[in-house]
Amino acid sequence: xxxxxxxxxxxxxxxxxxxxxxxxxxxxxxxxxxxxxxxxxxxxxxxxxxxxxxxxxxxxxxxxxxxxxxxxxxxxxxxxxxxxxxxxxxxxxxxxxxxxxxxxxxxxxxxxxxxxxxxxxxxxxxxxxxxxxxxxxxxxxxxxxxxxxxxxxxxxxxxxxxxxxxxxxxxxxxxxxxxxxxxxxxxxxxxxxxxxxxxxxxxxxxxxxxxxxxxxxxxxxxxxxxxxxxxxxxxxxxxxxxxxxxxxxxxxxxxxxxxxxxxxxxxxxxxxxxxxxxxxxxxxxxxxxxxxxxxxxxxxxxxxxxxxxxxxxxxxxxxxxxxxxxxxxxxxxxxxxxxxxxxxxxxxxxxxxxxxxxxxxxxxxxxxxxxxxxxxxxxxxxxxxxxxxxxxxxxxxxxxxxxxxxxxxxxxxxxxxxxxxxxxxxxxxxxxxxxxxxxxxxxxxxxxxxxxxxxxxxxxxxxxxxxxxxxxxxxxxxxxxxxxxxxxxxxxxxxxxxxxxxxxxxxxxxxxxxxxxxxxxxxxxxxxxxxxxxxxxxxxxxxxxxxxxxxxxxxxxxxxxxxxxxxxxxxxxxxxxxxxxxxxxxxxxxxxxxxxxxxxxxxxxxxxxxxxxxxxxxxxxxxxxxxxxxxxxx
Length: 634
Description:
The protein has about 625 residues and is of the alpha/beta class. It has 29 helices and 14 strands. Helix 10 runs antiparallel to helix 13, helix 16 runs antiparallel to helix 19 and helix 17 runs antiparallel to helix 20 (about 370-390). The radius of gyration is 31 Å and the shape is globular.
């Protein structure tokens, strides 16, 4: 019988797409590579075959054919790095288990309790921005409690981070394989396409290269497809077949693998669209069943994951095509090829989680269970859709740079390096032409020359060399676009924090002490603060005055003790002396620790108000709550 560590070695190797060195296995399991060697020998003795093989050059790998023959199953491997473990734990708490046993977890990942405690601290950091969530530890168990809406927001944030730049990034896709260079293959493929004057859409290109990578990986392990094709298809022909034939001839030469006609035919079919369904076929849905299924899938993604893909036609077409092909395979009793996409499952667990849920919906429609290969392809469609959604959330910028490409490229590169997470440059123009700008539908225009136009698109003039002042201009413009974009959220936030019953106008007050006593007592009477809140406010004030030269004060507690986040306002017709300044506006902050992110939003608003004297005067001259709030949220 295998030990837990030996079983874990089988799990790790069966989930890996490539060999793993004894040193890396030892590091993951906290033992020496000599111990790993002994464990491998014991595993092979237990199964009576060379289940795990060794290569001096690359390390240990499992024989998957023997695993299938002996019906040996493996357990899902929990990621080994701290960040991956944190994401895995959050995913499990959201979807799999209401609570997790930490002792069992330590045994499964072979890490110390100290490492697990560090992981839990990091998880608490991740969820801090969601005031409705709490990681609860009870003895040796943990659970994630709190608001369902915040749980979905947390998942969506992690998902967007996971997919960012990966599903349309050939470099990221190429990292899946270490035994060959997919980018070199891409160069070969591009050269052949140019030779035959063959064009592939940019959206299709990464997925086609991923298919090519999977084919090479399988061929290197002596696994070849065998498809029953008849007539014209079996003979090949056409430009796609010529491209596939030349590509696989080069693959055979470079990697010393057999040139198998079925592999060529399959890849040619992929280029022709054989592995996809034509748009005409997709549109055929006489009884409306497919349309209803697609509606169910979109509703599940929206309700359970807070991901709205209803407007993504590429996703819709891709999923319907996949379902139709799945049904064709079922009718012909043909299993999907073993595409060995375990790396996708491990590298993008949150995308895969969505794919599993979508697969359950499809299973109900098709009446058959989907294996992991089918689910992996669903994950590809979902990952690419999330990637498009990521890109859609960035601001679109057009740059006007009347210089040569060699001069303009460094400027654009610096812009993307500095602001690439918030905007994307959709076009670089050497001159302004209204028609082209309108076609690009940009959110802002960046120009290195003075520019006047009537399009109503925010425009920022920068220098060609993008200095610090230029970066500040772009940063401020992006913040302005954020404020405009999220104005509705900002209004809701201000209305929640600045309640009518916490708004006060007074002709005059004797002193700041009288003001603070009045405002703090009001919060306490309404149950919005604890007994120590007023004391902590006065302690903070004793350290240094919270008044500012513009004529306002922002008192707050030295310690967090409020029960509910709120902002109390007092306007004084006659100013009161507050430290070194005369104050007309008092803003008492009572923000819970879990709502610290609100402070940034508040101070962004406050800075904009007090640095504009006209706006500030409008605030302090307000005759009532409604007028004051109109000035705040307009």
